Amino acid sequence: MSSKKYDVVIIGGGHNGLVAATYLARAGKSVRILEANPEIGGATQSVRSFPEYEANLSRYSYLVALLPDKIVSDLGLSFECISREVSSYTPYGDDKGLYVSRIWDSKTESSFNELDPSGNEGRAWQTFYAEVAQFAEKIAPTMLEPLKTRSELKCQIGLDATWQYLVEEPIGKVITERFQNDVVRGVVLTDALIGTFASAFDMQANICFLYHLIGNGTGEWKVPKGGMGALVSELVRVATESGVEISLNAKATAVTSSATGVTVQLENGEIVTGDYLLSNAAPQVLAKLRGTTAPKNLDGSQMKINVLLKRLPTLKSGIDPRLAFAGTFHANESFSQFETVYEQAQAGIMPAKMPIEMYCHTLTDPSILSQELQDKGYQTLTLFGIHTPASLFDGDHDAARTAALKSALDSLNDYLAEPIEDVIAAIEVKTPLDIEEAIALPRGNIFHTDLSMPFREDGTAPSWGVETDDLRIFICGAGALRGGGVSGIPGHNAAMAILSNN
After folding, report:
1. Predicted confidence (pLDDT) per residue in 190-214, tens digit
2. Quick one: which of 31, 64, 385, 421 could link to 303 by a disulfide (CB 3.0–4.6 Å)?
3. Alpha-carbon 211 to chain mean position
């Protein structure tokens, strides 16, 4: 048994646990992080996935939007995210594609006009995303404050029409009302589905859309320079410099709480005690440790495929692949395809052509590759398969993984002038069940639990969104209210919840 009693014990060394630990340590608290794995970082780690190649890939989480600049500034993180000039590229038909720059320009306008010569879709796009940007700018600062009530937040934002279609009505409604083209509708819908198993007309899709579009008040998804591991390294640096103790291979097996503190039993026999416990693990994992009933949640719903390419493939549309893959590349992600595949997956059917989105980290930041690989023209490609719930893999997991990979690659090959297999140097595939086994995300849910709206309902008690039924135990991970994504927000808020009590 550890002879030292800590002010705060944190289970899980993901980025949120590290954020919470640093804020608490700088406030004078003694803090110990217990990480079950031999490496720190959780879903934000970078790894050399392919030992024979010097390439450090962000294995589970790829891009950064939700991490507030305030956290980076508060903690003094030497960490840079790089803007991408290209927002997305979506091939359609036999040899065409919709190109969208991060900032609307003549190339984007021309691409929309080729798709819709009337100009209506382009104008609708600009109007819709201008409204969403206004909403994002208003709501982003509230993410690091105690939860507002629904009415308080609606009043503070003051954009009632936008609130109505983002918060009160299914996102599929506004998409189908504002946009007429199936491809454009699909591009908009993508942000409502990433990691979430839902129809466009389920409110869970609205919440996912919000979390993808409100980051830092801009919603811009940036490339982490040096990969996600660069963020983890900086968080470890500031945490340890602030006095945080980090224990690896320290797997918790039980948590008990009393009037005097919280006790954590470790697999190696050590007992660690603290006045408070923060859980960076999923709520279901915490419930199991406490011996309480775990919440029921949606299956995780994503395939993650990490690829090292000998070079970028050529496309049927003739666009420079360095443009097509620099932003987010969408394949077979029209609105109708999304809805059809969702229905198939509900029925237990693996899609023949999986809706996938992907991007090439190394076009923006080649530093994750050795100079030798850079000189040879190697690139990385990270694919995210949508509507692939864990239930599709519950039978013969290996066979389902093989079928899913074929579905994803066939989907991409629809738009390439050469098979992607011809340019692959190495590949790894992570199903939701693989993700659960590797980093303890229940059913592979990258958000830990179902995402929730970033407010509390009217008439409920004041909250930071991190509290549990035990006054000494808080959630500091993605399973908190305002949790999912690489944000650090629940880590910050859990630390603030403890400090406000002391």
Report:
1. 999 988 999 999 999 999 999 888 8
2. 385
3. 9
Say how far residue 98 (Cα) sits from the centre of its chain: 24
CATH architecture for segment(s) 81-221+298-444: Alpha-Beta Complex (3.90)
What's the 3-state SS for 222-262?
A: EEECCCHHHHHHHHHHHHHHCCCEEECCCCEEEEEEECCEE
At residue 167, φ and ψ (nearest 5 deg) are -115, -35
For 27, 234, 274, the CA distances from 265, given in Å and listed in that order, are 26, 29, 12
Confirm whether pTM is higher than 0.90.
yes
Q: Where in the chain is the domain with CATH 3.90.660?
A: 81-221+298-444
d(CA 259, CA 249): 29
Determine which of 141-145, 166-170, 307-311, 446-450 has the lowest per-residue pLDDT on average.
446-450
Specify the DSSP class assigned to residue 313: P
Q: Find how far residue 318's CA is from the centre of its chain.
A: 31
Residue 195 to residue 387: CA distance in whole angstroms = 8
Given the structure tokens 């995780």, which residue do they identify? 300
Among 64-73, 89-98, 152-161, name the one with the lowest average pLDDT: 64-73
**Contact at 8 Å (CB) between 50 and 370?**
no
CATH ID of 5-45+225-296+463-500, from 3.50.50.60, 2.120.10.80, 3.40.1190.10, 2.70.98.70: 3.50.50.60
Ranges of CATH 3.50.50.60 domains, the chain: 5-45+225-296+463-500
Is the pLDDT score of 62 beyond 80? no
Distance CA 491, CA 472 (A): 16
